[in-house]
Specification:
Layout: H1 2-18, H2 22-37, E1 42-46, H3 49-62, E2 74-76, H4 81-90, H5 98-104, E3 110-115, H6 121-132, E4 136-141, H7 148-151, E5 154-157, H8 163-184
Parallel strand pairs: 1-2, 1-3, 3-4, 4-5
Length: 186
């Protein structure tokens, strides 16, 4: 039972640390609102559990989170298995996101990346191209932030190093972002 209690305590400490980042959460939401109002699209991506989170974010904002409102232009770049597998097979797994950014992302758009380490080559490559294209880059990472510290316009770093605790904080933070964004379009 002590291991379970320790895990819960770690979770609570990581979530408690998010309070200090509330201004960052607000800035992320404000920037997403600005991009959408300006005719842009938000593209979301991540690997593994963060890929599922990217799909979750897109689903909440394309569909409905808590309120009735228009659908918002938010697209997960983790869902097109034909594109993902074709690019991985033909060009390599490190190109699965950069190729989609090349095809879709414009200067008025935003790229929202979720990466516990902030060092995944396929994420870093996508971020670098989005920046060169003039798109806003938003990152959610773990404590260190990795390469994304220097590459993101806005960065939220969950105060933990373990993937599960980081992703738990990310989920709370992106739900808060979704709530603020949704309210702006209600």
């Amino acid at each position: 039972m002590s291991d379970l209690r320790t895990s819960i305590d770690e979770h609570l400490a990581a979530v408690e640390a998010l309070k200090a980042d509330a201004p960052t959460v607000q800035r992320v939401a404000d920037r997403i609102i600005e991009i959408i109002r300006g005719g842009g699209t938000i593209y979301v991506l991540g690997n593994g559990g963060s890929a599922a989170d990217a799909q979750h974010i897109a689903g909440e904002l394309q569909g409905r989170f808590k309120r009735e409102r228009r659908a918002l232009p938010v697209v997960a770049l983790t869902t097109d298995t034909s594109t993902l597998t074709a690019v991985a097979n033909d060009l390599g797994a490190e190109r699965i996101f950069v190729r989609q950014v090349e095809a879709l992302v414009r200067p008025q758009d935003g790229l929202w990346v979720l990466s516990v380490s902030g060092t995944s080559p396929n994420i870093v490559a996508a971020v670098e191209l989005a920046r060169r294209r003039g798109a806003c880059v938003i990152g959610f990472t773990g404590r260190s932030g990795g390469r994304l510290v220097e590459l993101c316009d806005l960065l939220l770093r969950a105060d933990h190093t373990s993937s599960d605790r980081v992703q738990e904080v990310h989920e709370l933070a992106y739900h808060l972002v979704c709530e603020i964004v949704e309210e702006a379009f209600t």
